[in-house]
Amino acid sequence: MIYRIIGRSGSGKTSYLLEAVKKAHEAGKESIILTPEQQSIDTESAISALLGSGYNLTTEILNFERLPDRVFRESGGVTLSRADSKTLSLFTALACENAKEKLSVYESSALDKDFSRKVSSSINRMESVGVSPSQLVNAASLIESENNVFREKLYDMGEIYFEYTELLKKGYADSAGVQKKLHEKLLEKNFFEGKTVFIDGYYNFTPAELPIVETIFKGADDVYITILYDENDKSGIFDVNGETLALTERMGRGVTDIYPTSARKRTDELSFLEKNLFSDKTETFTKKCENVSVFSCKNTFEESEFVSREIIKLINKGYSYKDIFIAVRDESRFDGILDTALCRMQIPFYSASKEELSSKELPTLILSLLEIAYTDWSLPSVLKYINSTFSPLSDKEADLLSIYAEAWRIRGRRWYDGEEWLMNPSGYKTSLSKREMDMLATVNTAREKLLFALEAQVTELKSRDLTVEKGVRAIYNHLIHIEADKALEKRAISLLEEGLADEKAKISALWDSVMSVLNTLYETAGERKITARRLLDLIRLMMDEYKVGSIPSYSDSVEIGNASIIRPSSCKVMFVLGMNDGVFPASPEASGLFSDREKEFLKSVGINSEVLPDEFLKNEFLLFYNLCAAPTDKLYLSYSESSLSGSVERPSMFIDAALKLFEEDIEKKYKVKKTKPSKNVFSLCTFDTFSSEVSLTPSSPELLYLSASKIEAYLKCPFSYYCKYILSLEKYDRATLSPLDAGTYIHKIVELFAKSLFETGEFKEKSEDEIKEFFNSTKEIYSNEVFHGKISEREKYSFEKHEALIIPLLQNVNDEFASGGFMPVAFEQKITNLYPVTDETQVKISGYADRIDLLEKDGLKYIRIVDYKTGKPSITPDDVKEGFKMQMPLYLFSHLKEDERPGGVMYFLCGMPSGKNLPFQRKGIMMKDENVKDGIKFLTDNNHFSSRSFYPEEVFQQMKTDVEENIRKVGKDIIDGKMSISPNTKKSPCKYCDARLYCRKKLEKEAD
Predict the structure, then answer these.
(1) At a CB cut-off of 8 Å and minimum separation 6, what does 550 contact?
(2) 154 contacts 107 by C-beta, under 8 angstroms
(3) Is the pLDDT of residue 896 over 60?
(4) What percent of the chain is predicted at pLDDT more than 90?
(5) Rounded Cα distance, 246 and 257, in Å
(6) Where are the beta strands (DSSP E) in 768-841?
(7) CA 774 to mean position of chain CA atoms
(8) With a threshold of 0.70, does the pTM exceed it?
(9) Beta bridge partners of 924
(10) Beta strand extents in 592-729 (DSSP E only)
């Protein structure tokens, strides 16, 4: 007899089935329970609680993956090895490669790993419905000649599919093949005779499973099957399950329908939602709604924040963590965000989803090793390897080597040519400080250690006669050489000592997983000739298919899962996150091989291997229905108003379907909670989401060392100052001739040229030829000092392109001094001064002035501070009053002696003129004095300096007062520990601020 237990979600179907299992057990009948893999643990727990520890004497719990082994073990059967997903992905890739020469449309894509994935997905579907390669060829022959591309695509797929089946013949079988063999065995011997079979939790069956289910229906004594169905529901969400009803009616056996009445107790709101979701009725829930909520959040960060806070509220009300489930449709949207939010709130959780093996650290190391080989030591591939936890380098060595390699763009032979690296770690500089010398020594030591670890295996992997066997051995030998196995074992022992047995188990399994991938490659394709690039693609393809699961860390924990696989039992609270248009319902996963019209044609000729959009959408509706029907107490739905990139997102159609059922407006906007600032120095790590306050403990040092640039950085934003000068967070850039680096180069040449004009103690003008000769010789000296004779063609070009700028620039400097007036008296002059801030603390200001000029006239001495700039800076007294552009005025007033007067401060703009800009402009603030005007007459006469930039002496006196007040104010705020995120809005400092990577002001702005 077939007993169909029919009902909607929560109607008591599983409870009725369990009671039937109990009766069969008590009657001594042999029983088999078939349930989906993700539901197996819950089923085993329920059966154990119901029947006691001896239930396995009469009752077995299986699924369609474990059933073949059980049948073959008892009845004899296939000796084939079951090919897992990673092996099948390898076979598909090899099949594409084998068929490459026979392909037309797909010939150029045959070795592409993404194409291989699409083919693998398509072949798996064809296998599951029993489509053979010859059927594809026959279908192609039916296509009219004008649709030549589609026809050739089918022929290509037939060739690849044929090669795939040939590879399987080498002692392997895929899931569909095993199930086919199982069906044949069941037809030969009735394994289910005398048994009662219980089928629970399946929404529908795959084409490969259907013949097995038919055999069960025909051969078992009794069959109990739960069917999620309601014949009165016209929404279409149960249509797929209706196919199972039709199947049971075709069996020619007696059928008894059971409609359980012990429905799951839900709150009124959830009961109403379950009964009316997607209904065409206009009835609404009129009572106060307290247990169904819809939340709109700014983005996935806020969604994660929202669910974490709501869980804490629920726990405080008496719920257990195990009562709570979180479902998402697209896990990638919340990857690294949701788990971080839960951890921050100390919420124990378990992810029911499995991760790709390739995302783990050891596989990443292997992939980077292969990348180094096939790219010949490209910078990105080496950096991946260096920064792996299995790298033979210490953290300090890895950091410094990474920074140095990025700065100087080290790649190719420069890694292994055996010549010592001598370039300055800080970029284009001609001398090394003690710190830079130490860094360089560490970098070269790290490089030697890296070469010792890598060179032999990389050379093997670059070999022209490389085979899969040699490649696999090279990878294995490298792992042993760097003692990756021992590092894993050590980490596993450490985790076990900390009481993290489940984490220890995952670490221990990682080595076995990696070895399984390498062993499969060795066994199936060992003799095949290959390149490092192709070996990398195959290993990555296999690792992407190798899913690694995890064990719950706590018995009481929140479960997170994909909406397509989660099977919540005893669920009281359900959160469904990411309910956005295009996310849930998801779009059909396009195979990328056939269009919708082509799929319709294939279906018309009996090839039903592709899921059509309307069928896929019905499954999405059913998934959402099951999530809404799962909880007994509360349901939360949430969506994001914008993506992390800032683009606007819309709520899902499912949100609208839920909202229209309730008369009360159940949609709420999640409001970010802010907390009071912490006085802790570590408040950057501990302050709550979007808090913009950072404070340090006040201090009273005797001396506070500052500079004009530090003061300006603080006035732009205290938090930026905190990150750069307190935490010493640095941003490292490549050593390129950017405007800043070009400034160092040009500055050096202009400085040396100016010195050369006065090397005898008096000015000596140079001719045009002498200027060119000076530039060429100085350029050569500078290049050798920076690159130590190893300048690349690209770097040589970068220097040469500045010649058009520098020679006219030197001529202009020559002409200015030849005209008389201000003359240089010091270059790179160190300037220091002390300013009292409190009774206990003084601020010591120090820095270097690029050039100090002196004008002597009418018995008076005037001082001018000059700074070389390749950009387009400007300065006004108002800038100085606000604390900006204080550097040159500070140097001026600190340098002045009693017998000297301020002549002014001046930027010498060394950049190439563009547009309406005149060449070799000077910008600054000069004293409104006839002697000073006469001293820079050459500049004003040639439009190099504006006549509007002269200011009376009282302006200079006020600037001196402003400089001193700004120093005292900033010094007082710093020793008081004021480091809040408060950028100066007048200066827009955030755009180019290095601290924006970890500043929360941006997030706060987005939230507003």
Answers:
(1) 350, 351, 354, 355, 502, 506
(2) no
(3) yes
(4) 31
(5) 13
(6) 823-836
(7) 51
(8) no
(9) 906
(10) 634-640, 667-669, 703-706
